[in-house]
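thread: overnight batch results

M.L. [08:02]
morning all. the overnight job finished for the chain we discussed friday. pasting input first so we're all looking at the same thing
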Amino acid sequence: MAGDVEAGSPALCRLYLGIELRKLRKAKGLVGQEVSNLTAWSPAKITRFETGDKPVEPMDVRVLCQLYDADAETTSRLEGYAFVTKTKKDWWQSPQYRPVIRPGFDAFLGLEAIATELHEYQAEFVPGLLQTEEYVRTGHAAVRQHLPADEVQRRVEVRLLRQEILTRSDHPLRLTAIVNEAVLRRVVGSPDVMKGQLAHMLEVGRLPNVTLQVVPFSAGSHPCMGAPFIVLQFPDPVIKPIVYMENLVTTVVTSKADDVEKCEVAFRDLGNIALGHDESLSMIEKARKEL
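M.L. [08:03]
and the structure it wrote out:
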């Protein structure tokens, strides 16, 4: 990111800007209230800068860098981050996609964009970051039969655009996805659609930042039956891990420590009974050949 600020996404620029401003403040030995007193800004404004909640004015960044005695190179880089947050929008905020993104899901997209690691369990569907275009389209047609074709297309595009975080040049997301064997065996659309989908899982599964595991039917019952979820982790401890869950009616995003811990423990237990990565890829290949 530091070498190509202009190409950064606003979500990532907000995150990196907040992390670096917080480090500079602490290195200067200041607390938020002292910065507030010195700048005549509210403490809430200082907090927003450091948590990456909102776009930031480059001039405000310059003021803080002067206060923190940042060197010219650091100041220029942080001003670049701020410029991106003010002049660019993340793709999901565009008028094209905003109408098809469910309330709560936009918050998840922002979190997913800045996460370093994602743990996901799915019992029925291929995880969204691993889905092919035809699988997405067929799934929407089956679950949301009332949607017009143009809305389905935009939903498909949203799903595919999300997947770019796995192959981005700057800190690609580390994904560990655990799926029930039923995900491989249930034919969504047609055998050809599923063959393409399973082949795509194998391809993505060979990326160095992706781990796939399958819970075979032979494992019997387990703690996560019927309860898909996602746990997101972030590069800075100030941003706590979050859990995302959704169903036909609503979406839930929570950072409550008890909820996160329950899901992390369940995911770890599930990983212990699931097949390893290489064995799972072999099972996926076997399922593809049997279609």
